[in-house]
Design a protein that fits this description.
It is built from 3 helices and 6 strands. It is an alpha/beta fold. β3, α2 and β4 form a beta-alpha-beta unit. It starts with a strand and ends with a strand. The C terminus is likely disordered.
């Protein structure tokens, strides 16, 4: 089991949350709590960078949906970046690729300062 690693950086369009390791029933609450504490402004874009994610179960998918709900409540956009093939397949099977913007690569955040978790 790989521990969940979460990083937060600031990009011009909004925060970029990097998710690495396993996003499952044990760790998903950590991501949900972190995203719920992010202050988003209308028009910003929250990006969840999943390039380092090794595993995602239904609890992890639920955490992604909670992040979407948080962003939309703030009138911000959300995108998933560098979604691993297995997770992308699941998102497509259940139609979630229709409600998330999917970016093919991790966003670059030049000059972005890591924010505390």
């Amino acid at each position: 089991m790989s521990p969940l690693n979460i990083t937060v950086t600031s990009a011009t369009a909004g925060p970029v949350v990097g998710v690495g390791g396993e996003l499952d029933h044990v760790t998903a609450a950590r991501l949900r709590d972190l995203v719920a504490d992010l202050t988003l402004r209308p028009g910003q874009q929250l990006v969840l960078d999943l390039a380092g994610m090794e595993f995602c179960d239904s609890s992890g998918i639920t955490a992604l949906i909670a992040a979407r709900n948080h962003a939309h409540a703030a009138r911000a956009d959300i995108a998933l970046a560098a979604v691993p093939a297995r997770t992308l397949r699941v998102l497509r099977m259940v139609g979630l690729d229709q409600i998330f913007a999917i970016l093919p690569d991790s966003p670059s955040a030049p000059g972005g300062d890591p924010a505390p978790e």
